[in-house]
Write a structure and sequence with these properties.
Immunoglobulin-like; alpha+beta; 2 domains; 6-stranded antiparallel β-sheet; elongated
Length: 301
């Protein structure tokens, strides 16, 4: 093989090497690349109209992922949609980075890439959103994610608008965030069914607000006899409890009266023991090694 290679080289010297490749040959390019690499070479400098065209293309590349996010129906679906949108945003940012724009557009061009990068990074961490969706509902949590996306991109969108450039018009708009709610300590959120002489005194020794549910024997936790809100570090009493019952409580933040759910940082517990009718009980929700009432985690309700 060495002799063949040398002969070929000598032949080239003797007869002269053409600068034009023969039919079917592939022209070498620097660093082992091919001519196709030229397609990703930054173009420009782009003016207003040409840059707007590229912005429109970038936004269209996000359309499917944005729709998937807004239509997520489960916690798992929401996490997957966030991951897909994160990848799509990174792809759009890469395409924009390959462009060269006129000097007056350079600052907003860089700002847009930066803000897209921030949004993509936050969407890539979907674990907390998936947990929140399990307690606050996937639709509610998806709307939170959509609002955060708009907030992350807002500085760039505002700067583009000042230059009469359009980007972000297809972003989902879930509307304003609901106003914060925090019921009064001891406020009764639900009460139905027969009343009795049972009484329950609860001390919430934890750092989170709780909604504690008295659930009549045989009923699911979503259908409580009484549900009472107890703020962190506070105590309250539930009276006129009728019949034997089980005790459930959920804790978290971002309470919604309409859904009777927390929106983030949730946990769901049930006391293992049953509570007999027409008796008075005292409960402290703060975990302790000397406690005599075990609890277990339960599915979201």
């Amino acid at each position: 093989m060495r002799q063949v290679a040398v002969v070929g080289a000598l032949l080239c010297v003797l007869v002269g090497c053409s600068a034009t490749p023969v039919d079917g040959a592939v022209s070498p390019t620097p660093s082992g690349g091919t001519a196709a690499a030229a397609s990703v070479t930054p173009r420009g400098p782009l003016g207003q109209a040409a840059y707007q065209s590229e912005l429109t293309k970038a936004e269209k590349s996000l359309a499917v992922s944005l729709r998937t996010l807004s239509r997520a129906q489960t916690a798992e679906g929401l996490a997957q949609a966030m991951g897909e949108l994160s990848k799509a945003l990174n792809g759009a940012s890469g395409r924009l980075a390959a462009l060269t724009v006129e000097g007056r557009l350079s600052a907003v061009h860089q700002l847009l890439q930066d803000r897209i990068g921030v949004a993509a990074y936050k969407l890539s961490d979907s674990e907390q959103a998936e947990l929140d969706a399990r307690c606050g509902g996937s639709a509610y949590t998806s709307q939170k994610v959509q609002r955060r996306l708009r907030t992350d991109l807002a500085p760039a969108l505002a700067a583009l608008t000042k230059l009469k450039l359009n980007f972000g018009s297809t972003l989902p708009n879930p509307g304003a965030a609901p106003k914060p709610e925090r019921p009064e300590n001891g406020e009764t959120l639900v009460r139905h069914g027969e009343t009795g002489i049972g009484r329950l005194s609860i001390t919430n020794g934890t750092s989170k607000d709780v909604a504690i549910s008295v659930v009549t024997d045989g009923k699911p936790p979503r259908d409580p006899h009484v549900m009472t809100y107890i703020r962190a570090g506070k105590a309250a009493a539930i009276t006129r409890i009728g019949g034997a019952y089980h005790l459930y409580y959920k804790s978290g933040a971002e309470w919604s009266s309409d859904r009777r759910q927390f929106g983030s940082g949730c946990s769901f517990q049930k006391f293992d023991q049953a509570f007999g009718p027409d008796k008075s009980w005292k409960i402290n929700l703060e975990p302790t090694v000397t406690g005599n009432a075990a609890t277990s985690e339960v599915e979201a309700y």
